[in-house]
């Protein structure tokens, strides 16, 4: 991976079949976890802003694991985006979308993967020039059936389904022509974190990399 390459959200999505959704509560876990995932072939890491330690964890990874490409998840507003960028994030993932969040990420040079759950969500994002989306919560909002339906009116759109995705149902989602990757928390099980079982996390990352069904269709 060329660390100097200008990042865009489609490049993030194409790097591996799965973007891990990571919740970290212990700063001491951040660096060994990132190293374990990178060792398994997963370099795009979404650290969610769901804990008070999230930004400190991102700072530690940015300083110690140069092969990891940090993303911030659960980015909900401009303040979150600015804090994430300052902590070392190179892309942002949001549960939904607002124009103010989109403008803040644009101003920061922070590629945004916005959350969508309806056709209207997609259209609002497209009005602001976005064409790649996190479909969230994927399984609750219709899963593969919804993604297939969107393939008609939004043929140019590309998706990362997240929410309820597992190692077992990911292949069916990844086989869809408008799905580039999926987001999943199964790569970082809480019990593996508690036990500092980094070899297990590396194995889970390797399994995730093996999910790639083949070349993706041309992207928007």
Can you walk through the features of this model?
With 220 residues, the protein is α/β, with parallel strands linked by helices. The chain has a single domain (9-209), classed as Alpha-Beta Barrel (TIM Barrel), CATH 3.20.20.70. 41% of the residues lie in helices and 15% in strands. It is built from 10 helices and 9 strands. A 6-stranded parallel β-sheet has the order 5-4-3-2-1-9. The chain has a 3-stranded parallel β-sheet with strand order 6-7-8. Helix 4 (78-87) links the parallel strand 3 and strand 4. Helix 2 packs across helix 10 (198-209). The relative contact order is 0.17. Mean pLDDT is 94; it is low at 1-5.
What is shown here, in short?
The chain has 220 residues and is an alpha/beta fold.
What does the main sheet amount to? 6 strands, parallel
Q: In percent, how helical is the residue content?
A: 40-55%
Shape: globular
| Structure summary, number of beta strands | 9
CATH class category label? Alpha Beta
Q: Could you give the order of the helices and strands?
A: HEHEHEHEHEEHEHEHEHH
Distance between the termini: 22 Å
What is the number of helical segments per DSSP (H or I, 4+ residues)? Answer: 10
CATH homolog superfamily: Aldolase class I
Spatial strand sequence of the major β-sheet: 5-4-3-2-1-9
Strand % is: 15-25%
What is the rounded Rg? 16 Å
Helix/strand/pairing category = alpha/beta
Describe the protein's topology.
Layout: H1 9-14, E1 18-22, H2 27-39, E2 44-48, H3 54-64, E3 69-73, H4 78-87, E4 91-93, H5 99-108, E5 112-113, E6 115-116, H6 119-127, E7 132-135, H7 143-150, E8 158-161, H8 170-174, E9 182-184, H9 190-195, H10 198-209
Parallel strand pairs: 1-2, 1-9, 2-3, 3-4, 4-5, 6-7, 7-8
């Amino acid at each position: 991976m060329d660390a100097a390459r200008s990042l865009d959200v489609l490049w993030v999505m194409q790097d591996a079949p799965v973007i891990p959704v990571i919740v970290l509560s212990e700063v001491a876990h951040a660096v060994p976890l990132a190293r374990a995932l990178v060792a398994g072939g997963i370099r795009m890491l979404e650290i969610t802003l769901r804990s008070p330690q999230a930004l400190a964890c991102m700072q530690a990874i940015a300083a110690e694991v140069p092969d990891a490409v940090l993303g911030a998840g659960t980015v909900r507003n401009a303040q979150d985006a600015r804090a994430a960028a300052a902590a070392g994030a190179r892309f942002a993932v949001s549960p939904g979308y607002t124009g103010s969040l989109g403008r803040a990420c644009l101003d920061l040079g922070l590629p945004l993967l916005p959350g969508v759950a309806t056709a209207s969500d997609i259209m609002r994002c497209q009005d602001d020039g976005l064409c790649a989306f996190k479909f969230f919560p994927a399984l609750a909002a219709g899963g593969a059936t919804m993604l297939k339906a969107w393939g008609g009116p939004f043929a140019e759109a590309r998706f990362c389904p997240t929410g309820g995705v597992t190692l077992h149902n990911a292949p069916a989602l990844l086989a869809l022509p408008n799905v580039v990757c999926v987001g999943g928390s199964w790569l970082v099980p809480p019990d593996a974190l508690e036990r500092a079982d980094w070899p297990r996390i590396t194995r889970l990352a390797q399994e995730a990399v093996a999910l790639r069904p083949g070349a993706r269709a041309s992207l928007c």
